[in-house]
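Supplementary Methods, section 5.1.

A reviewer requested that the exact input to the structure prediction be made available. We therefore reproduce it here, unchanged from the version used in the analyses.
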Amino acid sequence: MDSPASPPMIEIENVTKVFSTQDNRNLKTIDDIQLSIAQGEFICLLGPSGCGKSTLLNLIAGFETPSAGIVACAGKPVVAPGPDRGVVFQEHTLFEWMTVSNNVSFGLTCNPDIRARFPDAAGRTQACIDLVGLRGFENTFPNFLSGGMKQRAAIARSLAPDPAILLMDEPFGALDAQTRFIMQNELLKIWQTTQKTIVFVTHSIEEAVFLADRIVVMTKRPARIKEIVKLDMPRPRNINDPMLSDIKSRLYDSMASESVMI
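The structure derived from this sequence is encoded token-by-token as follows.
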């Protein structure tokens, strides 16, 4: 298994997750995952729908706890959600009754430790709005934003407390193809500016090869790591580059045996 050379920002050690169903069955979604992710890496989790990618992301976020094994961030076991990990979901989850500015600043005001780190909350809020390209829309409510703009605001809200890790669960999956491509490019610019560690869930091979430093290919449920593909290619990447085409072909072959689970 390929692993990063620098000390890990995220360490997943022999992690298994089992859920209990309403009819008292045990449903194993993740089976013995082991993965190290370095500071500043852009990792894509690629696999069929329903395989357990989001469950693994939720374990890193602290929304779920492992049935076995350990998830650690910056050397500390994950036991709950924390300000060191920002999360962006497929749906924007903005507060509809708040403006863009109030949505972005929300995470700066609800935690005393974060408030102490950012005494100039207004300045921090504006910096994050500028970073995602929403200057001029500070006083706009989500209902008046496009899908891409809503996700920009959601990313800004996640970035505001300055987390070391950004966890993204198919954040562009609901966008049209053109907006999705624009947002992928914008995300790469944000990542290069902030140097965050990003773990990005997708079932799109093209999205993964366009974004990632390494692609973690997962099997059908219960999810195991099937292979890890490293992309030593400069950005921005041309999706039609012959080298990327070869990698995409390899990934399609790897995924072919994994049935889609709805």
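The CA atoms of residues 160 and 236 lie 26 Å apart. These observations are discussed further in the main text.
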